[in-house]
Design brief:
alpha+beta, Immunoglobulin-like, four-stranded antiparallel β-sheet, 2 domains, 9 helices, four-stranded mixed β-sheet, disordered N terminus
Length: about 240
Amino acid sequence: MKKIYFILLLVTIKMNAQEVRKAINGKVQFSSIGIENVHVVNVTSRRGTISNENGEFKIRVKENDTLKFTDIQFKTKKIIISKNIIQKGELKVLLSQRTNELEEVVIVKRKNMAKELGLPNAGKEPLKPIERKLNYINKGGNIDKLYAWISGDKKKLEILKKHLDEDEITLDNKVNVQLIRNHFKEDFFIYTLKVPSKNIDGLIYFCLPNGIVYLFEKERFLEVINIFIKNRDAYLSSVQ
């Protein structure tokens, strides 16, 4: 009987020894910087603490305990306490920053919001400021028209609008010429069409009245090339 009691006593002592937890020091970091106010919880013993301003903490653990580290700005992390950690008496924990992932949102820019809403006259392109003023003069009463005629406002606006329209066409042509030149490359013009580099833009401008922009936009490139071939000699003769 004494032998049985002795065995039970040894088992009890061993079990109690396993339940004894040792205090260890730890530090919670992000990119070598200590993190303050991180909740450190021993999930096994249901005991916890909070890291100080340097990210340091102290908590009691035993082998196979699970520590849980939580903070609103960082991803939650769990660590199982090993025998090596207990022997060292210290633990360094690196946390990863939490990223708030939002659902993908597609933003579509509407060219004509009135058209999208189905409003009257929505299909019409909005008038430019000068066009609006000319429209007001043309549709205004006799007094408005008389004043515009006497002051010369209408004439001035019409001339200005003409210049602006011409400038817009010039800019469009410049962009189209550059796009066409970039597509066919300089080697095509220089070695295939035998057009000097300085005259490439000139040839493209020379061919604009033949509808090459329309053909280019429709990717009918062979027709564009045929127009270049047919007009090359005439253009080069005009610049000699």
